[in-house]
Amino acid sequence: MTLFVPVPNYNADQLKGSTLILPMVSIGNIPQLTADLFIHTFPLDRVGFLDTDTVIPVSSLREDTQLGATVPIEVYQSRDRQWTCIQQRSPTIKGKRKSYVDELVQFASQFDRVVLLTSMDASSRLDSQINSVPFRVLGQDVTRSIELGVPQLEQTEERLHLPGSGLTRHVYEKLQDKATLFIMFALEGDNVQDRSQTVDTT
C-alpha cells in the first residue's frame, strides 16, 4: 500500500528537498494549532494525505473552497516547494502506535530536514526552565534557534524524557540525524496565544 496519496496533478517527487514540519500530538494540542496557523498564514496548499489505519478515522467538510472532505492526516506544501507540513486531526489508535511511528518515520525520511513540533507538560519543568522562555530545542542543527534566544533542552536523564509529548521521543530517536525537535511548555486549556508564540519563534 502506498502511504502518501497525492492530489491530482501533484508529483510526489516534489516533496524531496523540502523541509518537513511535523507536529506531534501532545499536551494542549499546541503543534496542531501551530500547523493550522502555518497552513493558513503562508499559505500552504493541500498536496495529498497519508493513507493509514493507525489513527481514528474521521472526515468533515473542507474549510477552504476546494471540493471534497478532510481526512485524519493531510499533507500541505508551500508554492515554492521549500516547506511541507503535516496536519493530523485525530489521535493514534492505542494498539497501533508502533505502526504509526514507523509510517511517520518512513514518510519523513525522504525529506532533507525535519522540524518536529511538540509540547511538554509545563508542570514538570525544572527550576531553570520556569525562569526562562517557554521554548526548548534539541538536535544536530540548533544554532539558529540558540541565536534567537531559544535554549537547548536540559537533560537530567540518560534517556530523553518528554512528559506530555505523546510519541515524540520515539519518532525523534528514529529521525535523530535529520530532525530538530522544537518544544513548548504548555498546559491543557486555551492555547491560542501559545500557538502564535510558537509560530513567531519557529
UniProtKB/TrEMBL annotation:
Similarity section: Belongs to the PSMG2 family.
Family matches, as Pfam families: PAC2
GO cellular component labels: cytosol; nucleus
Keywords: Chaperone
Protein species of origin: Rhizopus delemar
Name this polypeptide is given: Proteasome assembly chaperone 2
Transmembrane segments: none
GO biological process: proteasome assembly
